[in-house]
Structure formats: C-alpha cells, structure tokens
Amino acid sequence: MNLLLNEIKQKLLEKGLKVTPQRLAILQALMTHKNHPTAEMIIEYIRYNHPNIATGTVYKILEVLVEKELIRKVQTEKDIMRYDAIMDKHHHLYCSESERIEDYVDSELDELLEAYFIKKGIPDFKIEDIRLHLNGKFLNLE
Amino acid sequence: MNLLLNEIKQKLLEKGLKVTPQRLAILQALMTHKNHPTAEMIIEYIRYNHPNIATGTVYKILEVLVEKELIRKVQTEKDIMRYDAIMDKHHHLYCSESERIEDYVDSELDELLEAYFIKKGIPDFKIEDIRLHLNGKFLNLE
DNA sequence: TTATTAAAAGAGAATGATTCTCCAACAAGT
DNA sequence: ACTTGTTGGAGAATCATTCTCTTTTAATAA
Ligand SMILES: [Mn+2]
Ligand SMILES: [Mn+2]
Ligand SMILES: [Zn+2]
Ligand SMILES: [Zn+2]
After folding, report:
1. Could you say which ligand is closest to the alpha carbon of residue B82?
2. How far is the CA of A19 from the C1' of C8 (A)?
3. Distance CA B87, CA B69 (A)
4. Which one of A34, A47, A65, A85 is CB 3.0 to 4.6 Å from A30, fit for a cystine?
5. Which residues of chain B neighbour A130 with C-beta distances below 8 Å?
6. pLDDT at B1 over 80
7. Sorting pLDDT into bands at 50, 70 and 90, what band is B2?
8. A39 nearest nucleotide via C1' and CA
9. pLDDT higher than threshold 70 for residue B93
10. Residue-averaged pLDDT of chain A
C-alpha cells in the first residue's frame, strides 16, 4: 500500500486524530504540492479523486492540522491563507511580482542567527522561533 | 501649526497625492499608534475627532498609502490586516500568546545578514528585502 | 461481526473583513 | 470664483472563512 499514506496515518494517530479519507487526502495533497497552496487550491486538487468533499470540511481539517502542528500557515499580504506541510525549519522566498513562495533551507544561517541572538539577546523577549521572509525576484521560470 | 501634520502633508505631496483631512487623520493615527493597528482600530481612533469618515474610505486610503509606500502591511496568521507607518528597515517581534507585535531595529544584524547573503547567494533568486519574524514571548507587561 | 458512540463530514446559511459602485463633495490649479 | 479630475460617503456586494445542524463514520467494545 502507498507508503506516503501510511506515514500520514501514523502522524494522525500520533496526534490523537481519527484517520479519515478527507484528512488523508488533504495531508497528501499538501505533502505532494509543496507550493504553499491555498484552501481553494487544495479543494480543487482533492475533488478530482474525492468529488464530494465539502468546502467547510477542508477548512475545518486545515484548522485542526495547524492546531496539532502537522501543518503550518504561511503568511502573505493577501486575504487568502496558504498552507505548508513541511515542518522542518525553513524560511521562505517571496516573489515581489507574483504569488510564488518557495522554501529556503539553510542550517548554516540558522546557526549563525542562533549564535547571534544568544550573544545579543532582545530585552524582555524570549525568542522561540525565527523565520526569514526573503522578498525578491526569481530568476528562473516556474 | 502641528509639526507632524506638516511632515505628513509633505509626504503626501511628494507622492502626488492630494492632501485631505481623511488622509491626514489616517497617517497621523498610524504615526502616533506604533502598535501595528488594524483598519478597525484606526477607524475607531479617527472617529473620535472625525465622526463622519466612512469605513470604505479608510480601507481605500490604506490601500493607496501602501501602494505609494508611505505605509506597509504587517502579515499575521489572522484574517485581519495590520498596518505600519514606520518605513525604516526593521523586523517584528510576534507574541506567541497574544496579538502583540513590536518593532525590532538592529542594524548590526542587518549588516550581518547582508554580508552573509552577499557571500552565499541564493541560486536563481535576487534578494530585495529581508524581514525577520521573531516569534516568542514578551517578558514585560503592555 | 455487530453494536455503540463520540468524533467527524456534509450542506448550506451566516459572518465579517474588505472591496465595489455610484453619486456628491472637494482640493488644487486656472 | 470656476473647472475638473480626484477623493470621500453610503451602502450593497464579495468572498474567504466560520458556524449550525444533521447525518455519517471511525474506532472501540461486546
Ligand atoms: Mn476575510
Ligand atoms: Mn475576506
Ligand atoms: Zn514552506
Ligand atoms: Zn513595525
């Protein structure tokens, strides 16, 4: 049986969530499409194999998955939320002339920043997580 | 006459925008309240001295001011936009247990990051701007 | 396997921040 | 003061998201 699906089932069970076809489909969609899709994009993709899924259900599931830390919300300046199934520490490249958002993984940078803030703390603030928003232009097509 | 208001008038004129009481009020509100307010918060504040301003007008003005780069949008995970009149380079401290967002200015860090990315570029991406989202807890009241 | 039941999904209405439309008011230059 | 393109006001419309209520179902026990 599908290896990814088994991995996803495991994750749901670990978080005490029931395994349902809808949840599997959404998590699978998010793990397959690493382009930080919107709820609408996820719905469109899922409906191909799962024509009956309700819009509200998708939003509810996304909300639960964020709460349980199986996915993350990705912030934008638009009134549309985007989602990310990659939970390993990473930053984002934001295109300044399109909606494209790509992952940026750089553990050397993470270490540099961690060292910097350990030395030079922020008064009255305890850092839990540092995320960079790198705005700019992609030089390749997509 | 009010010094801040004159400064604001100047900024509007430089951008080719007509100077109106509504625009002055909104920019003044944003420059006075550095807490990254929502449109609703701005409206509430402005209505005290300016009871007739229309909700849609505030949204339209905020949009124009963002376009003309007199203010910025501040991204959050909520379906409510927040605004910032401080255009000098700075990062944001996000409280993980409330909606509080504070500025973080650190030119030493900016230089460090600039040097880092000049040395180690990102393939196929031209960086225009780097913003850190520092998530954590504030240790003081507010 | 079947029965039980709390959790989850479906359908569609409701919400609420934001946008739009259309007309009246007005800022800025003549 | 006059003219004109720009801007503001009022309220409807939009639309992503949330809510409510009912039906279905996954997981557990008998
Ligand atoms: Mn919304
Ligand atoms: Mn919206
Ligand atoms: Zn990502
Ligand atoms: Zn700020």
Report:
1. 4
2. 10
3. 8
4. A85
5. 132-135
6. no
7. confident
8. D16
9. yes
10. 95
Q: DSSP secondary-structure letter at A69?
A: T
Give mean pLDDT, residues B61-87: 96
d(C-alpha B95, C-alpha B40), whole Å: 20
Beta carbons of B76 and A77 less than 8 Å apart: no
In whole angstroms, what is the distance from residue A99 CA to residue A75 CA? 12
For nucleotide D18, the protein residue with its alpha carbon nearest to C1' is A56
pLDDT of residue A51: 92
For CATH 1.10.10.10, list the domain ranges present in chain B. 2-84
pLDDT of the residue at B141: 79
Number of H helices, E strands in chain A: 5, 5
Q: Give B101→chain A minimum CA distance, Å.
A: 11
Supply the CATH classification number for the domain B2-84.
1.10.10.10
Question: What is the C-alpha to C-alpha distance for residues B75 and B80, in angstroms, rounded to an integer?
Answer: 9
Does the pLDDT value for residue B142 go beyond 80? no
Q: How far is the CA of B19 from the C1' of C28 (A)?
A: 10
Share of chain A above pLDDT 90, in %: 94
Q: What pLDDT score does B54 carry?
A: 96
Fold entry, domain B91-136: Dna Ligase; domain 1 (3.30.1490)
